[in-house]
């Protein structure tokens, strides 16, 4: 029994020692190992760009389409057989030129009949008026004669309106497109006889992101190149849409350009370039420095071998650079290669440094 008590006391002491060791010594060693592993973690190799104040003439690029200054489809308002056709394809016509005539024989007959009736009613109204002046007839009799004359004139005006609907006249000076009908064809208001285009001047339609709204305005000039042409054309912005398109978050612009030689064809694809006034102090970084995150844009700035995350506000975009409005300063080393695998406070090793350069200067 005494021996059993001795064994029990020894087992209790050993258990206590094991517990004390595990509680107060093993944890510190684990922490030490973890710290050593953390301190031994290799640095991530990165390339950086040194930010500087650039005196630049920033460019904004967009794509667009050439539009005719005016364009419309030519359709008759009345149905019938075509009795006159004057649609010179690809040729210039003046405003008001008669281009197409639908058979209006029925209306012309009605008009002739009404003209004869109006002549008779006019003579009758004149006689009734003279008799009224000498009290030869009552006022009611004269009013009936006048009402008959006015009714016939209204009917005549209506028939003349119907005759006008059988004609298609050029709504403005322009070029006639390819027509789809021939003499003797039966047409309805749903049939497009041809289209007419006013191509001097032409309009350039393009869209820009809403962030450029305050920078690009009516009166600014643009340069553009048309698909298939080597020439560089200049146009002036005449319209800025007062509303932002909610689907694309962009604003539509129209610029006007002279087209005396007829080189610019409606529907042609164009590349548009806009140049802004020179900014004396503007921060720009290469576009690859920007890391998009939820609701923000960040860059990594390297200092003393540590990459720190900075939230930035951006402005205009050029071909290779992006304007930084706030978030970094002149002289900061911004990571431009290797930034997408970095985390805040990560250790880095700069393997290549790129000094600031002139951005989009006029040649």
TrEMBL record:
Pfam families: Beta-barrel_RND_2, BSH_RND, HH_MFP_RND, YknX_C. Residues 72-196 form the Multidrug resistance protein MdtA-like barrel-sandwich hybrid domain. Residues 204-277 form the CusB-like beta-barrel domain. Residues 284-350 form the YknX-like C-terminal permuted SH3-like domain. It comes from the Bacteria. GO terms for cellular component: efflux pump complex. Residues 105-154 form the Multidrug resistance protein MdtA-like alpha-helical hairpin domain. GO terms for molecular function: efflux transmembrane transporter activity. InterPro entries: Beta-barrel_RND_2 (IPR058792), MdtA-like_BSH (IPR058625), MdtA-like_HH (IPR058624), RND_pump_MFP (IPR006143), YknX-like_C (IPR058637). Belongs to the membrane fusion protein (MFP) (TC 8.A.1) family. NCBIfam families: RND_mfp. This is Uncharacterized protein. It comes from Sporocytophaga myxococcoides.
């Amino acid at each position: 029994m005494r021996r059993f008590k001795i064994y029990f006391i020894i087992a209790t002491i050993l258990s206590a020692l094991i517990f004390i060791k595990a509680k107060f010594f093993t944890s510190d060693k684990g922490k030490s190992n973890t710290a050593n592993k953390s301190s031994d973690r290799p640095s991530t190799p990165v390339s950086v760009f040194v930010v500087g104040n650039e005196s630049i003439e920033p460019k904004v690029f967009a794509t667009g389409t050439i539009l005719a200054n005016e364009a419309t489809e030519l359709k008759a308002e009345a149905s019938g057989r075509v009795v006159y056709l004057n649609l010179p394809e690809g040729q210039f016509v003046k405003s008001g030129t008669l281009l197409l005539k639908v058979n209006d024989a029925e209306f012309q007959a009605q008009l002739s009949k009404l003209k004869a009736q109006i002549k008779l009613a006019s003579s009758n109204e004149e006689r009734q008026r003279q008799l009224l002046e000498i009290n030869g007839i009552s006022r009611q009799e004269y009013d009936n004669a006048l009402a008959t004359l006015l009714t016939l004139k209204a009917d005549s005006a209506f028939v003349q309106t119907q005759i006008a609907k059988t004609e298609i006249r050029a709504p403005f000076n322009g070029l006639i497109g390819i027509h789809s009908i021939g003499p003797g064809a039966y047409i309805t208001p749903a049939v497009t006889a041809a289209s007419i285009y006013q191509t001097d001047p032409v309009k350039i339609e393009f869209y820009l992101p809403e962030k450029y709204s305050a920078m690009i305005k009516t009166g600014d000039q643009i340069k553009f190149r048309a698909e298939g042409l080597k020439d560089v054309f200049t146009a002036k912005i005449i319209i800025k849409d007062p509303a932002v398109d909610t689907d694309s978050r962009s604003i539509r612009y129209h610029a006007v350009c002279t087209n005396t030689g007829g080189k610019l064809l409606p529907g042609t694809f164009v590349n548009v370039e806009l140049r802004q006034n020179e900014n004396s102090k503007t921060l720009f970084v290469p576009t690859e420095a920007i890391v998009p995150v939820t609701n923000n844009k960040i860059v990594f700035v390297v200092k003393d071998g540590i990459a720190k995350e900075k939230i930035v506000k951006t402005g205009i975009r050029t071909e290779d650079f992006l304007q930084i409005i706030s978030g970094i300063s002149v002289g900061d080393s911004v990571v431009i290669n290797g930034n997408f695998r970095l985390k805040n406070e990560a250790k880095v090793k700069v393997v290549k440094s790129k000094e600031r350069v002139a951005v989009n200067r006029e040649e």
